[in-house]
Amino acid sequence: MSKVFMGVRLQRLREERKLTQAALAAMLSISPSYLNQIERNQRPLTVAILLRVGAVLGVDPQIFSEHDSAALVADLRDAFSELPEADTSLTEIKKLVENMPGVARAVLQLQSRYHMAAERAAALESQFDDGNRGISLAPPSVDEEVRDYLNQRQNYIDELDRPAEQIGDSSASALRARLEQHGVTVLPSEDSGPARGRRLYDEDKKILWLPQALTESQQAFQMAAQLGLLEHADTVQALVQAAAFSETARDSARLALSNYFAGAVRLPYRRFLQAAEDCRYDIELLAQHFGVGFEAVCHRLSTMQRPGYAGLPVFFVRVDRAGNISKRQSAAAFHFSRAGGTCPLWVVYEAFSHPGQVLRQVARMPDGSTHLWIARQVHSGPAGFMAPGKSFAIALGCDISQAHRMVYAKGLDLSAPDVATPIGNGCKVCERNDCPQRAFPSIFSNASPTGRSANRPSP
Predict the structure, then answer these.
(1) What is the C-alpha separation between 435 and 429, in angstroms, rounded?
(2) How far is CA 120 from the centre of its chain?
(3) What is the pTM of this model?
(4) What whole-number distance in Å separates Cα of residue 387 and Cα of residue 356?
(5) How far apart are CA 220 and CA 184, in angstroms?
(6) Side-by-side strand order, sheet with 185-189
(7) d(CA 32, CA 264)
(8) Is 332 helix (H, G, I), strand (E, B) or coil?
(9) What is the enclosing helix (H) or strand (E) of 305?
(10) How many Å apart are CA 364 and CA 361, to the nearest integer?
(11) Which of 89, 227, 339, 359 has the largest count of CB atoms under 10 Å?
(12) Strand spans (E) along 129-206
């Protein structure tokens, strides 16, 4: 492992427990001067001391990991990029995140509130401009709040995953029978109206309405999700309260947790992970074996981080043709920019031109990190002529050091530097000035779409 210099985090833990340096040093069986050097980042936190810290202070040593740091660094860089006069370097941002993650998150919360206020101001301005007095201000987006919570937990929720694994038979008929034990009746709903394509639960009548167009596998997933809200309501509520979600995000958080439970029921952890290892993470084989879709397998693979029995750490993304990212989960240190969009050279967008095919790409980020990505288009929606459908591209990636564990690395020379395609976090925050696909200048350079200096007039 790399050297961990996070002395301020350790100092904060010590002060929260009202311990002196001498007292904590004695508990860790080290000298006070050694502890003082660690807190001042003059010495790194070794594995042995990390384990002792976890034992004596009752914390998970993962709080000193760099998993969450990568996302925080990228988010902070985006935030500071909105202030052209801000004199902050990448090194300073990394130091802030490593030593004071609480301050870093507070900066992001301030940015989020600023954006919320700006959006509402724009809505009010629009209201007065066009004379429409009935305009309603849209509530702030809660997707990022829920997504950040899941990523901070490496997308693994042990409190729900283990109970889900105990259910056993996850077929639609078995789950329907289990719901009936709770007095719940499952009925088909019409595929029209505002609730099209969604499950609806009438708590008073104990009726679960499911869209007629759902496949048997999709019906099983929705029934499992409702089952989680019935049998583990206290656990879900405790998780939501502990995470301190905003009031507008609580319902979305409950939905995300119920869907997590459903995925864990349909793809039970140990059996699914063993199957994945046996077939070297061949997604189509796994989908066929468990009777689920390509996207469901990719989504579940991004959650396989049970302590002591973890799977391949992967990144999972779902995008549409317009480049909107509707799902983004990372079990490792990878993060796409929120403000800068995504890169047109990324293989996920190529998937729309090759329906049904699994594409692969070795891609290198500007910081030198390299990953193996696979992508495939997926389509869903009701059957029938001219019936509305949904089309997405699904991408799954892992660090190049772990790529040999995937069947998709077969035939690729992972060590050849010219194999990797240079991609970035999006034009706004990408430093690659020589990129042929650049749409507009990076805020970190003087590059322009034509290759001229942005500060120099064109001839």
Answers:
(1) 13
(2) 27
(3) 0.71
(4) 20
(5) 14
(6) 185-189, 207-211, 200-202
(7) 46
(8) coil
(9) strand 305-306
(10) 10
(11) 227
(12) 185-189, 200-202
Kindly list the strands in the beta sheet with 359-364, ordered across the sheet, starting from the edge strand earlier in the chain. Answer: 325-330, 315-319, 390-399, 370-380, 359-364, 421-422
- Angle formed at CA 429 by CA 459 and CA 105, multiple of 5 degrees: 150
- What is the full DSSP assignment across 219-237? HHHHHHHHHHHHHTHHHHH
What is the C-alpha radius of gyration for the chain, rounded to an integer number of angstroms? 24
Cα 197 to Cα 27, 168, 179, 208, 219: the distances in Å are 57, 27, 20, 13, 11
> Tens of pLDDT along the chain (459 residues)?
455 566 777 888 888 889 998 999 999 889 999 988 888 878 888 888 888 888 888 887 666 665 557 777 888 888 887 776 677 888 888 878 777 777 888 888 888 788 777 766 655 554 444 444 344 444 446 778 898 888 888 899 999 999 999 998 999 999 999 999 999 999 988 654 444 557 899 999 999 999 888 889 999 999 999 999 999 999 999 999 999 888 889 999 999 999 999 999 999 999 999 999 999 999 999 999 999 999 999 999 999 999 999 999 999 999 998 888 888 887 666 655 554 457 889 999 999 999 989 999 999 988 888 999 999 999 876 666 666 678 999 999 999 999 999 999 999 988 887 789 998 877 777 778 888 888 877 766 543 443 333 333 333
Phi and psi (nearest 5°) for 187?
Answer: -130, 150
Closest CA to 178 of 166, 188, 191, 190: 166
Task: Give the span between the Cα atoms of 174 and 227, in whole angstroms.
Answer: 12
Rounded to 5°, angle at Cα 438 from 432 and 439: 145
What is each CA distance from 1 to 40, 55, 65, 269, 357, in whole angstroms? 20, 20, 10, 27, 37
Residue 367 one-letter amino acid: D
The strand pair at 185-189 and 207-211 is best described as parallel
Task: Identify any residues that bridge with 318 across adjacent strands, giving them in sequence order.
Answer: 327, 394
CB within 8 Å of 193: residues ≥ 6 apart = none
Burial zone of 296 (CB within 10 Å; 0-12 exposed, 13-18 middle, 19+ buried) = buried
Q: Which among 326, 300, 316 is positioned nearest to 391, based on CA atoms?
A: 326
* Amino acid at position 446, single letter: N
